Fold these 2 entries.
Entry 1:
Amino acid sequence: MTLSTALIFSIVFIIFFIFIMGTIAERMLKISAKNSGQNPKQYGILPNDLSSIFGRNISKPSYIPSNEDFFSFDKGFDIKLMGEASTEHKIESVHSATYAIKPKDFIGMMPIPKVVVEEGDSIKSGDILFYDKSRPEIKYAAPISGEMVRIQRGEKRSINEVVMLADKDIEYRQYDLPDLNSVNRVDLVTFLLDSGAWPFIRQRPFDIVADFNVVPKSIFVTTFDSAPLAPGFNLTVQGKETEFQKGLQVLAKLTNGDVHLGMDARGEKPADAFMNASGVVKHWFKGQHPAGNVGIHIHHVDPINPGETVWHLDVHGVLVLGTLFEKGIFDTERVVAITGYEIAKPRFVRAHQGICLEKLVMEVQFQEERNTTDKEGKPVNISRKAVRLISGDPLTGKEITSTGYLGFFDDQITTVEEGDYYELFGWLLPRKGHPTQNRTFPGGFFPSTVYKADTQQNGEHRAFVVSGEYESVLPMDIYPQYLLRAIQAYDFEKMEGLGILELGEEDVALCEYVCTSKHPVQKTLREGLNMLMEQG
């Protein structure tokens, strides 16, 4: 070994040693601060730019008022993928020949809801299409005007889709609007139920369409989404500031508590509609995904105790309510992000709820021909599924076909390559093209690395063991692995004690992503929530 080589190794070792000692010292300082009753987030040794390598950056942006809550999370993980929608392209309004509302988008709805329109009927935007037989007061409305063309059925005659043929120009249902300044809560709830706007309001526990018989202790609105490739709501409210504020006023009438606004402290200053919102309590959140999830906001601001209910909406839902009272129309138009590596021009479009995706993803080759050989070594040509289309984000979205329809609550379309290939030696090779939360691959040491997504699981289902992986990405005072075990054991008391009432599938989606055991975390959580709902 030459002198220069030895010198380089010595320098690298010294730098590594300093990092290790600095990290240990910072951890001990935070523990001491916590034991003495101080806020440990206010203390540290490593500079912010170095701490960010380890997922810590607690600096408070200058645009946050000093009197508003600020939360900075160490736990979480950002999955940075290729194919993010670009604002360089003009945001165009797009339309399709058909639209559909899918009853299965609503958790807890009976498989065969009551459809109140018949094939061939003319409908206007806001006209009622169907209602749930178990809760007939909650009605589901048409997002566009046109003609009712078919009811697409599934197994056991369950209804998959209620499909409409769209008019070129939308006609809107006329409403007898109540005076928002003088209307009482009972009459307001009745109007929202009859208008078809109520399904945009959801509740915790159970993450279902809100129970209109319950007065929530508070209502939460999240103004940003931290999921992979998710669109920013700043674009959504651009030019609709008045409607957003009006929607917040509607929500204030529905609760005796506060309306909480979850604000984005991760980068650029939020839109004026959010910054200037009045009649709400603002809370700022900074950190990696799932920092934007409403479940995280509820947990840290106004946790749910047994017997309590909290309602929540996204920005789209607030705009629907606000537009209804500001303009007197049922308008479901939203900004939709078309994302994914396979999209030639990832972009934003304006579209109405339930749009058919066929024209939006025409450039994607979902099937491809592949040459291979049979058992006898003869060449054969086979067709394989090359790309998966998702309505929603890659962690929580639902797989659909290219002729399918956008989900009720979705504002994102994602393409992901099918991962049906075999990796020789898997994680043993030091490859850089894989996102990694535990830094198994070199890319884990470079947080800005962007990856191409595929559906490869990188392993098979294994024994479900306690590893601490879930806790490292979930910024909540919950032990998700023990909760999942309680669900599998049908232990209702432990489920509630371990915090199941505060959770929705999106909150544990990242736990499923990092799970070494390849456990279906979201599915298991939903099974537990359904069991508790059945118990009443």
Entry 2:
Amino acid sequence: MLWKKQCCKHVTILILIAIILLMGDNVLARKYFMMERPELDFKFSYEIENEERSGPNLNREDSTMTFFEGFNISAGGWVYHPALLSYKFEFIPQWEQLSQKTEPDEKIKSRNFLEGYLTEVTILQHKPYTFRLFADRTRSTINSNFAQRSKNETSTYGTSVLLKYMVLPTTFDYTHSDSRQTGFFDTDEETDLLQIQMRYFGHLGDTRLKASWKDTNTDTRGQRLGIKEQKVDLTNHFAVNSRGAARTNLGYRLTEGDFFELERYNFTENFSWKHRKNMSTNYSYRYVKSNFETTTSESNALGFNLKHLLYENLTTTINANGSNNKYTGGSENEYGGGVNFDYVRRIPWGRLNLHSNHNYQVTEEEKTGNNVGIQDESQTLTIGGITVLDNNNADTSTIQVRNVLRTILYQEDVDYRVTESGSSVRIICIPGSLLDTGLNCSTGAPVVVDYSFISDPALDFATFTRGYGIKLNLWSVWNLYYSYNRRTEEFLAGNEPDVLIDDIINSAGTDVTWKWSKTGFAFRDSDTINLPTREWDLTETLTFRPTENIFLSFLGRYGETEFKDTLETETFSSLTSSLQVLISRKSRLTVRGSFHEVEGSLDNIVNTGFSAIYEIAYRRLRGSVQYGFSDEDDKKFGEKVRNHYFMVEVKTSQF
């Protein structure tokens, strides 16, 4: 039966190609049917990849050879009349032969066929009601410098209904998608999404409603997680007159997972008024209530802001705020205000900017317990960067790191590492992990963190924050800046803590841009009770274009971070370079190299990489030859990863 199905597929493909070749005109048209002349593209590629991993408990080498061939037929047209039904389609069959050898003496051979396609049908596109049907199936490759390349196959289908009435335009959308990722990590995900969007624009202003229902099931590393999420968001923007406007927002969110449940309500009201050309005020109110498993939180907040511009140079901002927050285990009241100044003036050699801010805040606490649970704390993880939890004295055994959608639970010492530095807790992304390959820690991976921490006893205190800064731009090429920020706490009532916050941060820097070079230096001294550090960073960027056909760039960076409380030092150095040569009008060579090193008591990692790609075009042919090399050496844990990659690819467009 299997060979019969394959034969049927091949016969269908041959018939489609024959029809295309027999079409002499630009279109295939009949009285009630029209199809544009299809486009036909071919693609062939050959890949070789070798990866070596070694460590205290790991010694593995993988070799993979992949041959890929496929083509793409695409066209569009209409049935009966363009206003009745229009369509477009792509047929994308793909064949892939893979041969993989892993140690010890394990061989894997596979032949995969993907009947890729993309179809879209639009019915009654010019009527007040329009229907759209779509379906597609695609495959993509996820590349990583530190992990095996992964394949992702996604199948999607759905429909949209557009009701284009002037009074209340409405859109209904339904989408179903199945995604499977194979490679270094295997992940299966199935999602159903139903959305409705409505808009009313009239005497009551611009009102928009967006509601969605989403059901997601994810299977990663044998761990299955199901999540159902409902969202409703109602927004209204009402202009009282040319000077005043109000904005109202109502929101509801219910997320039910196999291991958690989150319910949240929110209401926000903002009103702005422009009193005169250079003065305006803004008033706000916000209410939020959340239920997360066994914990509940509720908050009310009021805010006021006045902004005034004097002589086009001095901007003064005055703000006041107050809030009441209740949560399981206690409550907190906050109120305060501040004033900020920003002065800008042109000088004979450039531009001068001065700024200052002063804010005073009073906090009154009531607590029934010392353990406080935190959910959905937003953090950004990097490789070798400093990411510290917002609260001290965190219980490391309760830390859970997830992606922003909470569909993936990452694992400690597999995806990330947790280290303690005094009372603070630091989280570091592990290169090549699921977290890195999925969110790219090299540019910053957004995650949410759940944990509990031991809070200080209840007390009333005041926080005084002030800052001053100066920035000078000279001759449009030289920038200098300095800023001073201080945050102090004053005990008012309750149980006085042993230590009150008295944080001082000094920052200074300069950069010079001259022709083909840019040199920068930054210094930061943080004298804080949380994580006192002293950092400096030197960067150099060189950009050359000696001829019209050659482009060369270098970026070098060297920095050092000193942790004052532990007297430990961490250094960071990197060098990246890029060379692009236009050999002819239809061919070019691109070469890139990189070196990154982080050395300290917490991390000692060296990453090097090199890649080159030659691209050429001749009439309807497109070709490329690509080579990549990456090497990671984690000296602290004795782990090494080395990867070689080579690919030849040829594309051709026949019509």
